Amino acid sequence: MTCRTLAATLHDELSDDSRIETRRALLRQLADDHINAVPFQQVDVKWLQLYTDATILETLSGLLSPHPATLALICQLDMAIIIAGGANRLETIHLLIGIAQSRLEAHCPQPTPSLPKAPLAPDLLYAPHPIPELDPPSVEAFITSCSASPFILRGFANRDSEVCPSWPAFGRWSSADYLLATAGPGRVVPVELGRAYDDEGWSQRIVPFEDFLRRAGFLENPTGEAMYLAQHSLFRQMPGLEEDIAIPDYAWSLPDADYPAYRRPAEPELSVWVGSGSSEIVSPPHTDPFFNCYIQVVGEKRVWIAPPHLSHQMEAHTPDSNGSVAAKEYMGNTSRVPILKASPGDAWAAHPSFKESVYPHSREAVLRSGDMLFMPPGWWHAMRGEGAGPGWSVSIWF
């Protein structure tokens, strides 16, 4: 049975019995309740599948109604990806998004204005040492000699090399016109609200993709509360953007990991980090349990790092046992020291033991468009958007 036949059959049934619509909505709500009841890693896959399938059924019925709420249908399809990962139905969801978007009037974004560029930021503010810079090593040299500590490859992703072709994203992703045309109208994304996730008042929200691009500075100088599209699998939602990047060969290699919590993912995990510059967005010092090829596509980002053996001196938060699941997940590996948030003098004055034990071993750099930062698992790192325009980074965990 084709999607069109299935939709027609479903629509006929709904016309005969409106109770089915209510039952379908209840199924979606039931799945949503179970998904939100436990940490995401513990969610039974059957609830993700139920949420996705109920969403698809609602969309099929909605598309055949006389006056479909098309933007709402696109939004709920995006939510099936954001919440449930598309649960074995990703191609179907992308197909339905395309059908729904074709029902909308042609989307004609206004030309993106030229925004001012700030002078280059100094590389060292919070650390005494720069992050080492290398020429791109071969995969063999990377595994045997380079994978034990962080390094930067300047201009790596905007030129061809033997380990990675250049990325078409350069020259494309700074254009709101291109991003909106590739995504299509009606799309929504999950954003963080606030300067940093360890600030009071930090929250999360689903917003229209176009509104987010406007606030991040792609369409105009940003005003209002800061928004950050952080650690999001945007390529699952908008696969057209994934065609603009290439995974470096390093991410398919098998370097040794001297880190007990490391568990290699089945395949490289890609996330995007998009927000405004002007020091508005800060990621506090924290750790990740994976190797990371972190590539700056648009704008600039300041990076501060410290080695894993200093973890006991990093003054990590102790999550409140009564706190939310999200708070425990974020704060358990996050330092209380306000690196990149407070001025260096204020940070050291409030945390003198940190200044004495960690600062001498820390490193710092500013990533610019095309640069790749490599980090092994367990390294502490803080990041801050720099410059006047928006910033866009891609992390590749492996």
TrEMBL record:
Annotated JmjC domain residues: 227-398
Superkingdom of the organism of origin: Eukaryota
UniProt-listed SUPFAM superfamilies: Clavaminate synthase-like
Pfam families: Cupin_8
PANTHER family the UniProt entry points to: HYPOXIA-INDUCIBLE FACTOR 1 ALPHA INHIBITOR-RELATED, JMJC DOMAIN-CONTAINING PROTEIN
Protein name: JmjC domain-containing protein
Organism, scientific name: Dioszegia hungarica
